[in-house]
């Protein structure tokens, strides 16, 4: 039970990290949240 919860959190964290890096690469890629809003 605990292993499944940890695995789920790690998976969600990895997917979220990949999503943010890909989204910022499409933008300016400066790594700031305010900058990612400028497309």
TrEMBL record:
The chain crosses the membrane at residues 6-23. The keyword Transmembrane helix applies. Keywords: Membrane, Transmembrane, Transmembrane helix. It holds the Pfam family FeoB_associated. This is Virus attachment protein p12 family.
